[in-house]
Amino acid sequence: MVGESLLSRQPTTNLTRLLVLVGVGLGLNGIYAGLLWSKFFPSWLTVIAAILDAVLAIGLMIMLPRHAQLLLPLMMVPVMLAGLRWNAEAGLLMALPVALSYGVPLVPLLSEEIDRVKVINALLEAAASAIVLFIAGGLPGPFIRQQLDLAAEENETELKSLRVATERGKLISEMALTLGSTLNYRKVLRTMIDLAFSAMAEVGIKDESAIAMVLLFEGDSENGAERLTVAAGRNIGRSDEGRRVSGEEGLIGRTIRTAEATITNNVQKDRVLTSFASTPGCRSAICAPLRAGLNTYGVVLFCSTEPHFYSEEHKQLLTTFCSQAIVTLQNAQLFEDLQREQQKILEKEAEARRKLARDLHDGPTQSIAAIAMRLNFIKMVLQKEDMAKSV
After folding, report:
1. What are the tens digits of pLDDT across the range 327-361?
2. Domains, the chain, ordered by start
3. Where are the beta strands (DSSP E) in the chain?
4. Which residues are CB-contacts of 136 (< 8 A; sequence separation ≥ 6)?
5. How far apart are CA 75 and CA 61, in angstroms?
């Protein structure tokens, strides 16, 4: 009677323990979900959660040793989570105690008479399960690490792009402020070339030996073809200052026709570019139009001794720079024209005053002087007559 009572109580006790264990697992997962929803899940809590998951998995194995193979997917959960959360080493470390729990089904075999077939089968099952667990713990680690490295690389690239964009925006803002601070035409030209040089240096590798020029249309040549004059430059020879070149050929002509920035990597084959004394060693060049509306006022030209030096990023930056600079250049040119016209008006006014002074001196002034002399003479005559009468 006592034995039957113990046998009847043991399944009930195991079932109760199993239900308690499952209830604890469900409760913990509910707590995890609540913490994640509230965005409070610190790193130390992650470690505790991983340990509790492993303890629950081992507890299930102890409670249900006869269903070890059915529990394998559930046993893999804490192992894979450890590998995914941290690395392969953490996954393997988590797999070790879980794999050792697969030795629980071997305990009843040791208390009975040793059956080699059962022992071998149990060992093979335990070994297979352990191998699966170790694979589950070690495999996600490298994959996750690779994904994390790729994500970090992408983030770094994006951060670098944002940093470059921020610096570029700051540079353009400073450029607009600097260009807008003066209306002196020549000073604007010098500032333009210096700022363009600084802007281009912000992209990629800096080339301090690069040649930069601002070329503007200044009338037509003898045969009627439009020509450009070097109005400002940097790192150019004196012989190139004020040089006039054709605006219809080569890189410059293509830039003016298409009204967009153009790059060439064959400077030596460009007859216009090789006509400059400063470009014998240059191998790549970029040219952008100074354009407002449908009118092109000139171009900005950069030449480098490095092959394939300029890129699409240089094109975008130089185009942005030229669109900002042409407004200031127009304002400076209009201001200079206004000053020139004002000076002409002042000169004409001064000339008119001088002419009026000459006319007054030659005509009415002399007549008035003659009248004054006659009046003085008459006065003297009258005074003499009065004196004679009194005598």
Report:
1. 877 787 788 788 888 888 888 888 888 877 776 66
2. 2-138 (no CATH), 161-338 (3.30.450.40)
3. 211-220, 226-234, 244-246, 262-264, 284-292, 295-304
4. 76, 79, 80, 83, 91, 95
5. 9
